Amino acid sequence: MIKRSKYGNRKTIIDGIKFDSIKEGEYYKHLKVIDKMGLIEKLELQVKFPYTITYSCNGLEMSKKAFYRADFVVTYVSEKTIGQKVAVIDVKGTRTAEYKRKKKIIEHLYKIKIIEV
After folding, report:
1. How far is CA 76 from CA 35, 81, 92, in A?
2. What CA–CA distance (Å, rounded) separates 64 from 93?
3. Angle at 47 between CA 49 and CA 18, to 5 degrees
4. Which long-range contacts (CB under 8 A, 24 or more apart) does 52-60 make?
5. CB–CB of 91/117 below 8 Å?
6. Is the dihedral of CA 23, 11, 87, 66 positive or negative?
7. Most exposed of 19, 61, 68, 104 (fewest Cβ within 10 Å)?
8. What would the pLDDT profile of 14-41 be if each residue is shown by its tens digit?
9. Residue 114 contacts by C-beta under 8 Å, 6 or more apart in sequence?
């Protein structure tokens, strides 16, 4: 039995792959259609983008490793497809404060634009 998350998402399985929401699974199917058309060079799921958070605590400088996980990273055959060669895609239902913070950090560090669908 697949249970709901705290945001009301229902996990789903497509092609033996578990997705956090039906919406994410549907977007995967959409990407597969585009792939069959020959427009996608590479499709990656759940790609980690690591980063380090540095902060001071009682005069000591501390650091903590963290990461953002993108739902999809799509490399298109041509940048003419969507205006760029590589797209970092996040399927969103609820834009949490944590997500917004991580998005800003990753876009700045990696010089990318995260596409929300």
Report:
1. 9, 7, 22
2. 28
3. 140
4. none
5. yes
6. positive
7. 61
8. 999 999 999 999 999 999 999 999 999 9
9. 70, 88, 89, 90, 103, 106, 107
**Which candidate, 35, 34, 33, 3, places its Cα nearest to that of 21?**
3
Please say if the pLDDT value at position 113 is more than 80. Answer: yes
Beta bridge partners of 70: 47
Q: Which residues contact 7 (CB under 8 A, 6 or more apart)?
A: 93, 94
- Domain extents in the chain: 41-116
User: What single string gives the DSSP state of each residue in 37-82?
Assistant: TT-EEEEEEEEEEEEEEEEEETTEEEEEEEEEEEEEEEEES-TTTT
- pLDDT at position 2 over 70: no
Phi and psi at residue 35, in whole multiples of 5°? -65, -45
